[in-house]
Amino acid sequence: MMALGRAFAIVFCLIQAVSGESGNAQDGDLEDADADDHSFWCHSQLEVDGSQHLLTCAFNDSDINTANLEFQICGALLRVKCLTLNKLQDIYFIKTSEFLLIGSSNICVKLGQKNLTCKNMAINTIVKAEAPSDLKVVYRKEANDFLVTFNAPHLKKKYLKKVKHDVAYRPARGESNWTVM
Ligand SMILES: *[C@@H]1O[C@H](CO)[C@@H](O)[C@H](O)[C@H]1NC(C)=O
Ligand SMILES: *[C@@H]1O[C@H](CO)[C@@H](O)[C@H](O)[C@H]1NC(C)=O
Ligand SMILES: *[C@@H]1O[C@H](CO)[C@@H](O)[C@H](O)[C@H]1NC(C)=O
């Protein structure tokens, strides 16, 4: 029974976590013609440290000279209008409990006082999943199916109303492609 279970390798990716309040994700509406040069991505991890949330951003193009560039987030914050992200090498981040998690924020790349490019993002729609653990696959002979169970830290968190997991599987031996459920 378990031998059959082990014959299958399973991969999960969480596509996105959607909060009940905010409706659909509003992904990066580019607002600047120069955006190509400074295109960037951001993701959040909520409640990483008590009530503190983490926002991480970086440029797509790792060759960009980031020396004088800053990231700033404005709007949908609790007590302040804007926050400037910290920088560690080419990664920008901020850990804070100021995110309102309702509505969307403007995240801008700044050169001095000038906004080079901005994206409008809702922090609660760009949540990056934490890796699942305790993955078990059991073949159920009677039903001729596989029962997949796993644990994921984000499942316990109160901000999550709806999580979608993608599951892909393939036989461990052979050349077959992944099948996505
Ligand atoms: C930047 O990278 C993100 C994440 O890898 C990707 O989703 C996005 O499409 C990229 N944007 C551009 C303009 O290449
Ligand atoms: C840059 O963008 C932020 C956030 O949208 C805005 O509050 C600020 O006024 C902009 N600054 C300039 C110089 O346009
Ligand atoms: C796997 O996918 C590739 C590309 O879609 C296809 O060329 C190949 O025939 C597939 N292999 C099998 C065993 O289905």
UniProtKB/TrEMBL annotation:
InterPro entries membership: FN3_7 (IPR040997), Ig-like_fold (IPR013783)
Residues spanning the signal sequence: 1-20
Keyword Signal: yes
Pfam family, one: FN3_7
IL-7Ralpha fibronectin type III domain residues: 32-127
Keywords carried by this UniProt record: Signal
Protein name (record): IL-7Ralpha fibronectin type III domain-containing protein
Organism lineage: Eukaryota, Metazoa, Chordata, Craniata, Vertebrata
